[in-house]
């Protein structure tokens, strides 16, 4: 299976960004662990702080891969453009968040991704990504 993890803005700072919410592990370290756990999965990683680059990536992979794991971070709550891209493509998208966005500020309760996502996994820390991969395997 060919899967891609797409991470949005500020997720390049994982490990040093608000560790009480997002944990103290870098995503690069976590990714290595994921890759060895799922060594039969072709797992790609893409991160950008730029909304249009996230849309370009969704369009690039959105008609050929087996699955997309998307944490659009803050753009989740603001981006009609990313929401439209998720709707436009054919590859199923699982929306992921590290934190439980529903236990946080009201503005994080809104998602432009969820209406067109295959499913949503949130609140399990970095393990949310692991669970999203599982969802594509079984
Ligand atoms: C996040 C939750 C968003 O509200 C926030 O803007 C993020 C990270 C999460 O993974 O918990 O940057 O998507």
From TrEMBL:
Protein residues bound to substrate: 71, 77, 84, 98-99, 108
Top-level division of the source organism's lineage: Bacteria
Keyword Amino-acid biosynthesis: yes
Family annotation (Gene3D superfamilies): Dehydroquinase, class II (3.40.50.9100)
EC annotation from Swiss-Prot or TrEMBL: 4.2.1.10
Record's keyword terms, sorted: Amino-acid biosynthesis, Aromatic amino acid biosynthesis, Lyase
This protein's pathway: Metabolic intermediate biosynthesis; chorismate biosynthesis; chorismate from D-erythrose 4-phosphate and phosphoenolpyruvate: step 3/7
MF terms in GO: 3-dehydroquinate dehydratase activity
Matching InterPro entries: DHquinase_II (IPR001874), DHquinase_II_CS (IPR018509), DHquinase_II_sf (IPR036441)
Catalytic activity, as annotated: 3-dehydroquinate = 3-dehydroshikimate + H2O
Positions bearing the site annotation: Transition state stabilizer: 17
Catalytic class of the enzyme: lyase
Residue numbers annotated as active site: 22 (proton acceptor), 97 (proton donor)
Pfam families linked to this entry: DHquinase_II (PF01220)
HAMAP family recorded: AroQ
Quaternary structure (record): Homododecamer.
NCBIfam families in alphabetical order: aroQ, PRK05395.1-2, PRK05395.1-3, PRK05395.1-4
Function: Catalyzes a trans-dehydration via an enolate intermediate.
Annotated family: Belongs to the type-II 3-dehydroquinase family.
Official protein name in the record: 3-dehydroquinate dehydratase
Taxonomic source organism: Winogradskyella marincola
């Amino acid at each position: 299976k060919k899967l891609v993890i797409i991470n949005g803005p500020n997720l390049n700072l994982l490990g040093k960004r608000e560790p009480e919410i997002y944990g103290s592990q870098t995503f690069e370290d976590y990714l290595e662990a994921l890759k060895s756990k799922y060594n039969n999965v072709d797992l790609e990683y893409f991160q950008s702080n730029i909304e249009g680059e996230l849309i370009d990536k969704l369009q690039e992979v959105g008609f050929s891969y087996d699955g997309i794991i998307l944490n659009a971070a803050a753009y989740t709550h603001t981006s009609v453009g990313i929401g439209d891209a998720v709707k436009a493509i054919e590859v199923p998208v699982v929306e992921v968040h590290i934190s439980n966005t529903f236990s946080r500020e009201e503005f994080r309760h809104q998602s432009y991704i969820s209406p067109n996502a295959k499913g949503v996994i949130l609140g399990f820390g970095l393990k949310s990504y692991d669970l999203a991969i599982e969802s594509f395997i079984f």
